[in-house]
Amino acid sequence: xxxxxxxxxxxxxxxxxxxxxxxxxxxxxxxxxxxxxxxxxxxxxxxxxxxxxxxxxxxxxxxxxxxxxxxxxxxxxxxxxxxxxxxxxxxxxxxxxxxxxxxxxxxxxxxxxxxxx
Amino acid sequence: xxxxxxxxxxxxxxxxxxxxxxxxxxxxxxxxxxxxxxxxxxxxxxxxxxxxxxxxxxxxxxxxxxxxxxxxxxxxxxxxxxxxxxxxxxxxxxxxxxxxxxxxxx
Lengths: 117, 106
What we know:
The complex is a heterodimer. Chain A is mostly beta strands. In chain A, 0% of the residues lie in helices and 54% in strands. The relative contact order of chain A is 0.32. Chains A and B meet through strand 5 and strand 10 of A and strand 5, strand 9 and strand 10 of B.
């Protein structure tokens, strides 16, 4: 059974670094890509970046200077780190499995992150 | 960055009514995917590669389009179709989503 679950702090102070973990089960990180997507309070969705099955990463250019995605295959975890947080980064953060034909086929339940000033 | 503009932003349809949601891209894209999201849940993949239904999606849904104009159509609206639908282009980085169409049942 394919599952993804995001975890991390619900509240972060402005200017600090956000660290989120996506723990997956039911598939291998060396077979599928994993993307991070966030959803703002107004409901808009933003693709943040992904780590490919081979370990390479792709980032949204708007976030590239602040964002890092990595993985620990032994723990089946994908890690997101984003620095210099601002209140505009308040959002629901999702990780999603991406198939070889680029379908976002399974999503985690998401984690709400609030950035406090 | 390719901007996707969805229309309408919000609409209400009666049971049995035909519904069409449009997604227009600022530049030509090769494919369009669609997601359905209900309140308090994650987006669900609904249509991919413009017209392929994800397994389990009712066949009253269909997708079509090319270039800069794509659409999702429901042939006969049902209460369970009330949700927000988003389009996604993955032809060009960064991947971008439309702003969503909230569909309500009358």
